[in-house]
Amino acid sequence: MTSTAAATDSAETDPAATDSTPADSLPLILVINRFDDEFGEYHRFVPDGTHRLAHLTTEDGLAPLAQDSAVATVVVPDLDYDTLLGPARRIAEEHGPVAGIVGVSEFDLLTAARLRAALDVPGWNTDYVRRFRDKTVMKKWVDLAGVRVPRHLEVGADTTAPQLVAQLGLPLVLKPRDGAASRGVRLIRTESELTGALTELVGEEYEAEEYVEGRIHHVDGIRLGGRYHFVTVSEYVNTCLDFARGTPLGSVLLDPGPLRTELAGFAHDCLDALELWDGPFHLELIVTPAGEPVFLEVGLRPGGAGVPFLHRDLYGIDLFGEAFRTTLGLEPLSDEGELEGVEASGGWLVFPEPRPWPARLVDRVSLSGVVPEVYAEALPAPGHVFDGEGGYDHAGGRFLFRGGSQAAVHRAIREAIARYRLEVEPVTATVER
C-alpha cells in the first residue's frame, strides 16, 4: 500500500465559501476509484476551491487522478471494505472530517455505504444501497408498489430443481443476487440442467426468476427531487447475456413517441417504488409481445459500455459527473432546461473478447468511413492479449453511432456487426494484461 499527498488550492468559486476560506477547511470528499479512464477524473466534477478530494485507488486507476491537487492518494491492492477501512480512517484523522464518500462503480456502492457508517459520514446507508445491489430485494420493493416484475425466488442450500420448476416453469433464469453485466447469469431450459446448476451453485447467493419473452430496453438518467433531471430510453441490440456468451451487444436510442413516453413513465414508477429521489440510474426492462413492460433490474449508477460516451457526445451530459454530485447531494453540473430541448438519434456497439482465451490480437478493421453512422471507435491495439476479463471496457472493439432516426442507427449497427473482423492467435504462455 502506497500513498501520496498534496495541498489543495485556495477557495475560489464555492458559493458557500469566501476568498478567505482556508483550503484545509473545505469539505473533504473521499473517493473509491477503480476506473483507468476519464471516469476517474473526479476533479472535473468539483470546481476549484469548493472541495478537497482524497483517493483510495487500485494501481490501475492512478492515471486519471489529479494527484497534485488531492490531499491524499492511497494505492491499495484491492477495494474490499477491510482493505479500505484503515486508510480511510487515517485520511479522516489527518485531513478530516470527511464530508462525503463516493464509489460510483456498481462494485463500490456497498463498500462506500459501509465506510460511511464506520466514519459517521452522511449519505446512502447499506440498507438503501442493497435495494439496488440485491436483485431479490429490489424486485420485492417494486412488486409491492404494484409494478410487474418476473416471478422470482431466492435460491438456498435446500432449494431443489422440482421446486423451482413448479413455481417458475421452464425456461428460467439463474442470476447472482448482486451481479452485474450478466456475469454468472444462466438461462436454464431443462430440469436436469437446473439440477446440475444448483449443485454447482451451493454456497453462492443466487436468485431464480421466470423467463419473460420480449424486447429488452434500458432507461438511463438522473433523478432530482423525485423527478427526472434527464432521461433517455434505448432498445438493446442482442442482450447482455448474449454478450457474456460471445455475441456483440449494442443499443439504440428510441425516437420520440408513445413507446418512449410509456417506458420512461414505467421507469419513473419503479424508481418511486425504490425511493430513488436523487441519484443516477440504469434501469432494464422487458416489453412483452403483448406490449406490457416488465421490470428487470436497476443500478444506482450510470450505464456502462457505450452509454456514458454516447450521452456525453449527443446530449452534452456527463452521467458520471452527475452521479458523483448527486451521491453527495450537490447541485447538478448540467442545466435541465437545456437538456430538455435536445433530441438525438444514436447508439453504441461493443464486441466481446474473441475466444478461446488467452488470445493475442494480430489485426482488426476500422469501421470509420465504412459505416457512415460510425462517428467514433475504440479499437484494441495489435499485440493486446484477451484473457476473458476485459468486460465492456477492454473489449474486442467499441463503436458509437449517430444517425437520422432510430431505424437508421439500428441498420448501421447491424451493418457494423456484419463487417467488423478481428484476427487473433492463441497464446500458449500466461501473459499478464
From TrEMBL:
Pfam families: ATP-grasp_3
Presence of keyword Zinc-finger: no
SUPFAM superfamilies, alphabetized: Glutathione synthetase ATP-binding domain-like
Domain named ATP-grasp: residues: 139-328
Region (Disordered): 1-22
Superkingdom, taxonomy of origin: Bacteria
InterPro entries, sorted: ATP-dep_AA_Ligase, ATP-grasp, ATP-grasp_PylC-type, ATP_grasp_subdomain_1
Keyword annotations: ATP-binding, Ligase, Nucleotide-binding
Transit peptide is among the record's keywords: no
Protein name in UniProt: ATP-grasp domain-containing protein
